[in-house]
Every structure is written in structure tokens, then in C-alpha cells.
Amino acid sequence: xxxxxxxxxxxxxxxxxxxxxxxxxxxxxxxxxxxxxxxxxxxxxxxxxxxxxxxxxxxxxxxxxxxxxxxxxxxxxxxxxxxxxxxxxxxxxxxxxxxxxxxxxxxxxxxxxxxxxxxxxxxxxxxxx
Length: 129
Description:
Number of domains: 1
Helix content: 25-40%
CATH architecture: Sandwich
CATH class: Mainly Beta
CATH superfamily: Cupredoxins -  blue copper proteins
Number of helices: 5
């Protein structure tokens, strides 16, 4: 008889969402850099208008002190987004536009973010190192 010695995997959408949040924030303590933020003002405006700070703590965005989702400080240095996607611009845009298609049942709702707005927000988030 063979014994399966692999770690048990979490089951169900809530367990998967919790795992995704934990993995996406592991080892992250960075701050925003003074790098090139060509449309930082526009991105911050969009982040505020979509209400992202209600769930996330976001450096450089006044009032973005939410505790529901992971803090986004250092997100530009993370290897994965939501524990599943390589941290690349297209992946961030995909996550911002339709997080439920990436991790069904996760806590982040589809916010109706347009392609252009997602591109602007993703570029800003990439600077948070």
C-alpha cells in the first residue's frame, strides 16, 4: 500500500481565497519608490474612484487604509499575484478587470474597471516596491 505524503491542499472557494491572499503578501514590506510615475496622479484618482482603498492599504493613496484585502505595499516586487499569476502587467490588468475569473469565489469583486483604467492602475501598482 502506497502512502500519499503530499501536503493536503485547502478545499473550497474561501480556503482558496485565503491561501491566495496569504501567498500574495508573503515577505512583502516594501514602500513606494520615487521612480517614474508618469501618470501617478491619474492612477491615484482612479484608485480612489473605484474605491480600492476601502479594502486595501495602498501607499500614496490618501484614505486607502482598508483591511479586507491584502496591503499593496511592495506589490511591484511580488513574484505572483493572487498566488497564481506571474506578476506581469497583463496579469495585473487581468486580475483588476476580472478577479473572479482568476480565483472564483475570492473576496475581490469585479469592479467594472475598464481596460485603460486597469492599465493605468497596474502601472502605478508596479511602482510600489
